[in-house]
Amino acid sequence: MAAILAVATFFASCSDDDSTVNNASGTGKIGIEFDNSYGDNNLILNTQGNTTSNNEVLKVSTIKYIVSNIVLTKEDGSTYTYPKSESYFIVDESNAATQILNLTNVPAGNYTKVKFGIGVDKEQFDMGASGQGNFLATAQAEDMLWSWSAGYKFLAFEGTFTSSSVNTATPFMVHTGQTGTDYNYTEVTLNMPTKALVRPTITPIVHIIADASKIIDGANKIKLSDNNANGMGAMIMSGQLLPLITANVTNMFRIDHVHND
Amino acid sequence: MKIHYFLWLLLPFVIGCSSDDSAEYKNVPLDVVIPSNFPAIAYDLSHNPPTEKGFELGKKLFYDGRLSSDGIVSCGFCHLQEHAFTHHGHTVSHGVNNATGTRNAPPIQNMAYQTTFMWDGATNNLDLQALIPLTNTIEMNGNLTSIVNMMKGDAAYTKLFKQAFTNGEINTENMLKALSQFVVMMTSYNSKFDKFRRGETGGTLTADELAGYEIFNAKCATCHATDLMTDNSFRNNGLAVNPMVNDVGRYAVTSTEADYYKFKVPSLRNVEKSAPYMHDGRFGTLESVLNHYDSGITNSATLDPLLNSNGTLGIQLDADEKVKIIAFLKTLTDNQYLTDKRFSEF
Prior knowledge:
The structure holds 2 protein chains of 2 kinds.
Chain A: H1 2-14, H2 22-25, E1 27-38, E2 41-42, E3 50-51, E4 57-74, E5 79-81, E6 88-92, E7 100-107, E8 109-118, H3 122-126, H4 135-141, E9 145-146, E10 151-162, E11 170-177, E12 186-198, E13 204-211, H5 214-217, E14 234-236, H6 241-250, E15 253-260
Parallel strand pairs in A: 1-13, 11-14
Antiparallel strand pairs in A: 1-2, 1-7, 3-4, 4-5, 4-6, 4-8, 4-10, 8-12, 9-10, 10-11, 13-15
Chain B: H1 2-17, H2 52-62, H3 75-78, H4 126-129, H5 131-135, H6 144-152, H7 155-164, H8 172-184, H9 192-197, H10 207-219, E1 234-235, H11 251-254, E2 263-264, H12 286-295, E3 308-309, E4 312-313, H13 319-329, H14 335-338
Antiparallel strand pairs in B: 1-2, 3-4
């Protein structure tokens, strides 16, 4: 008998694949979907003109952001923190596969809130390489790494614009991330309109609308024409506008609905 | 009898778990030198304690040109040991495809004691510092995904990653940690000056060197502070702006007007060997550097206040003082470090 137990121990130590026990222990999956809009409309890349409150017309070519540190809150108030080392994602409007974050091994339960970060938190960043796995390579492949400074782009929002003073389509690039003075990571907590019921047999999808118009045209209004000093384009990648844009980003997300299928 | 039978069954599992002995994690810790005359170490060793194999891996990475896009430009390409790991003879360094940069390659020594890195302080984390030259298009122009794939296809790397890290994974995290382990071990602490400060044999300064140290303490040590010879701050030291480059320095990182043309105060260790000087390598000799502070300061809105006392620019130094300061600066040369085989490419 003792020998049989010993054999079992060796099996366990050699194989760390525990997928066979998932169903029995009450975990499931949940999808967090990021659906980018521009105001009330779907975000159409490149071709659709979008008018801001400053009467600038934007054609958006790129919107990407790092989503991190996902925490789910159950109806009893208890929380489930998704394993930190697996909790870094890049959402890219031009790649549909990136727009649903598929979380696995989530304890079964009725969830009422989701919290996530936009960017890489300072605690993680200050640890240097530790805990980043291969995310630096992933970020570089997605052009979300700043080569002049050792850090991530938290959000990239790019395209062209015209305005009353800028007649020809002129590039704009808004990149948030760490600067010498501000860290610019932000966290967002959203209440679910209906509970997300995670079960071994139910994989809810939390459908989040991310309103890209808010990035420069939220509570803080940033005029691209004012940042086009030499006519070469509005390049907003550092300085005092980034904390204002970060505050806007914090308020660009809402949950439209939850599927419990 | 039954027990015996089971023991035989166990054998394959034991073998299955412990594969090739040589490719397993080997935890042989290395001692990080903490000299008594240094300020506190800044690097968090607990996150990444150097081991024999981690150091060996880091050294291999440091000297491997395959990390760059042209397969030639390694870290060691611009950081030559005998010149305190600077690019001797180059005002600014050149990278892949003969691209030239705008900055002079700084020395590598005592990095574990520093809190900001690069001339403009683009990072304050040593692990992440390596990413800047590694990915910069005019330096190594490296692609992290390609680098990881290259290492995964290389038997020597595959073995070293397994020996250096408990999870054995070949990824950017472990690559950067290994590089840090190598760099953290690179401590220059046995110059004549160090021995003088610690009261050790070989630490007797000549009259000129001692006089130079006194002048240095009176006129230079506010910025070149502590035995590391830097206060880790960013300052505009009154260099005439080169209009061909207009390097704005720290402003590039902070976008704060007050940071225009500020650069990190460099350590002066091994300064005799690390010519040329300044962020763009514009001065070829220590004499030129002292002449700049004495009579070459250009005033501007962000000029360091220490270089402008009531309208008099610079630090007044007569010829005799300059000779003595340079005599003192040469006591900062640490030949043991500059020839230490542990850090050598060959």
